[in-house]
Design a protein that fits this description.
6-stranded mixed β-sheet; Purple Acid Phosphatase, chain A, domain 2; 2 domains; globular
């Protein structure tokens, strides 16, 4: 584990210290949502932006372009085609709006890559990292100019190659598996989730997840004034309700209806109950936007609706060892 570059030895937050922050999570490759995330800093007048993971998109959409400039593709089951640069720009925007990555190539190149598993994987990773790097460059430039701190971690869906891009940032601070300072408050962050049906890159069993978070928390000067930025929400908290899945990843129905169940982490719940941080921030379960008190801790899941172009977030003001106010916002 690495200490963040903003970590300094201060005393705990005092009653006169205040911090305003904006938190959001699970943008999943949506360029529009990322830009709205950055824009929230000035719009809401906060001192810090915190992104809680699942940054990257899940697919490339190939656009076949012939020698005349005519193009065609399939986007969400619909064939799209055109002949003009304006029509192509419109298509690229639609792909990015839905959290996917456009890839423009000849029909021959697309056919070659589609038949080569290694080439497809390499192309996806290269494209994903190029897009993420452009996001971080934009944040570095704009947020440094505005004097707004930005903290970003990957989530369970994000490949390991994302970490190097975040570590290379100039103003954006990579915060996963670290203790960093957000104003007068310490913050720990963990992008791992408990096991999911999709077997994503960053998953741990509950014992290992507890040990990982506890090792971070043991470095805190005062958990009572700390922020926990934990991608997965606490188990059976109302912030972790999702429809149950069958082993083949289809929905399980009970009485003819989808069957909602808690799917969050027992480890996360246990660590919150034991240490009672001031604020606990979560994402991961898109449909469980809400808040709950676990003891004295305010736990929040901002949810996600990235494929609609809307970003769900929360503006929180902390004052010493209290949450002075908080509000869910949509942009």
């Amino acid at each position: 584990m690495v200490l963040g570059r903003t970590r300094r030895r201060f005393g705990g937050a005092t009653a006169t210290d205040t911090l305003s922050l904006y938190y959001a999570s699970d943008v999943h490759g949506s360029d529009l949502c990322w830009r709205k995330f950055l824009g929230a800093g000035r719009f809401y007048g906060v001192e810090a932006l915190i992104m809680g993971g699942d940054l990257t998109g899940k697919a490339i959409v190939p656009i076949a372009i012939d020698d005349t400039g005519a193009f065609t593709t399939t986007l969400i089951g619909e064939t799209r085609s055109g002949t003009t640069p304006a029509e192509l720009d419109e298509l690229v925007s639609a792909i990015r709006f839905n959290g996917m990555y456009p890839w423009r190539a000849s029909p021959e190149e697309i056919a070659r890559v589609s038949e080569d598993d290694a080439a497809r994987a390499s192309l996806f990773e290269k494209t994903l990292l190029t897009e993420l790097r452009s996001w971080i460059d934009l944040a570095d430039e704009r947020m440094a100019a505005y004097g707004i701190d930005v903290f970003v971690m990957p989530g369970n869906d994000d490949p390991w190659s994302c970490d190097a891009v975040l570590d290379e940032a100039r103003h954006v601070q990579a915060c996963d598996d670290r203790v960093v300072r957000v104003g007068p408050h310490e913050m720990i962050s963990c992008g791992y989730a408990n096991p999911t049906p999709w077997h994503t890159p960053r998953e741990l069993d509950e014992d290992a997840l507890y040990a990982r978070i506890k090792a971070l928390a043991d470095q805190l000067e005062d958990p009572a004034t700390a922020i926990f930025n934990l991608h997965v929400p606490p188990y059976d908290s109302g912030l972790d309700t999702a429809n149950e899945m069958n082993p083949d990843l289809t929905l399980r129905y009970v009485g003819g209806q989808p069957h909602p169940i808690p799917v969050g982490s027992h480890a996360v719940r246990q660590i919150i109950e034991e240490l009672q941080p001031l604020l606990s921030l979560h994402g991961h379960i898109h449909e469980s936007r809400g808040e709950v008190r676990i003891g004295r801790t305010l736990a929040i899941n901002t949810g996600s609706e990235y494929n609609s172009g809307h970003i769900h977030g929360a503006v929180v003001t902390l004052a010493g060892s209290d949450v002075r106010k908080h509000q869910f916002v949509t942009g």
